[in-house]
């Protein structure tokens, strides 16, 4: 079985995100960038399937600027076999990403595509679903358990009311939730080995995909600063304030 894993380069989850001074977007200059945490979980799951003898090859793919190569190298250091970068300076929106992934799927013919449930920068939670729709493949989103059988994959999903298990026919699209696994740390020797693994670079035009944005960002603003709280000396004062000042009760 061949697995394609999508890995997005995003602002590191430990960094406090700031809007650019002109409000045109999020500041990324001199900001630590990392692999989207849900995509680390996707890579880990693919590696576990390979270690279990279920998967033969893992291909990691990232789409964006040249620096996305670093994200692919991280996936290769974790254990993916080879990488694909679809390089563009255009800001990619989920539909463009899904179309590019569809074109790569047509070439690579994987049995399973694993993505994160969402990217922590745009929080769109759209790409996996759009890709499944474009391919006409079944999808198992928000996966907390993935069990591959003969030509099938059972995906346990985290839904509002609890857990739901769906049986999908392969090929299929799976998106990962937080509880699926705990990604491994990358070991130094593996970082060195990853430098030698193959990494192919394409442009969107090579894949025949128009990546022009369909949405325009008008303005990016930071949320208003929260006022400092106060301490009250009795429950009676608290109730009084909630009633007469906050009008909350
Ligand atoms: P989103 O729909 O933007 O929240 O992203 C969901 C998932 O799609 C991410 O967790 C990634 O697995 C994948 N994805 C989205 N954009 C990219 C990208 N530019 N490069 C690689 N993977 C991406």
Automatic annotation (TrEMBL):
GO MF entries? electron transfer activity
Q: Which residues form the Electron transfer flavoprotein alpha/beta-subunit N-terminal domain?
A: 23-211
Out of the domains of life, which is the source?
Bacteria
Any one of the GO BP annotations: carboxylic acid catabolic process
Q: Which UniProt keywords apply?
A: Electron transport, Transport
Keyword Hydrolase, does the record have it? no
Cofactor(s) needed: AMP
The family database entries (Pfam families) matched by this protein are listed as: ETF
Function (record text):
The electron transfer flavoprotein serves as a specific electron acceptor for other dehydrogenases. It transfers the electrons to the main respiratory chain via ETF-ubiquinone oxidoreductase (ETF dehydrogenase).
Q: Which family does this protein fall into?
A: Belongs to the ETF beta-subunit/FixA family.
Q: How does it assemble?
A: Heterodimer of an alpha and a beta subunit.
Listed name of the protein: Electron transfer flavoprotein subunit beta
Organism source for this protein? Candidatus Contendobacter odensis Run_B_J11
Q: Which gene encodes it?
A: etfB
């Amino acid at each position: 079985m061949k697995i394609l894993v999508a890995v997005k380069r995003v602002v590191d989850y430990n960094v406090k995100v700031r809007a650019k001074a002109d409000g045109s977007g999020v500041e990324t200059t001199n900001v630590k960038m990392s692999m989207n945490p849900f995509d680390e979980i996707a890579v880990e799951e693919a590696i576990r399937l390979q270690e279990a003898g279920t998967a033969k090859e893992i291909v990691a793919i990232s789409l964006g600027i040249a620096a996305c190569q670093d994200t692919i190298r991280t996936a290769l250091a974790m254990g993916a076999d080879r990488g694909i970068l679809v390089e563009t300076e255009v800001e990619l929106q989920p539909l463009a990403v899904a179309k590019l992934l569809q074109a790569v799927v047509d070439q690579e013919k994987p049995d399973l595509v694993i993505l994160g449930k969402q990217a922590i920068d745009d929080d769109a939670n759209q790409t996996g679903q759009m890709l499944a729709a474009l391919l006409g493949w079944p999808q198992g989103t928000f996966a907390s358990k993935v069990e591959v059988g003969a030509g099938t994959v059972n995906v346990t999903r985290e839904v509002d009311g609890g857990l739901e298990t769906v049986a999908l026919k392969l090929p299929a699209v799976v998106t990962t939730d937080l509880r699926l696994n705990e990604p491994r740390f990358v070991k130094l020797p593996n970082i060195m080995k990853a430098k030698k693994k193959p990494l192919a670079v394409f442009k969107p035009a090579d894949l025949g995909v128009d990546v022009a944005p369909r949405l325009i960002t008008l303005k990016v603003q930071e949320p208003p600063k929260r006022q400092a709280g106060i301490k009250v000396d009795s429950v009676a004062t608290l109730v009084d304030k909630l009633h007469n000042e906050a009008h909350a009760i």
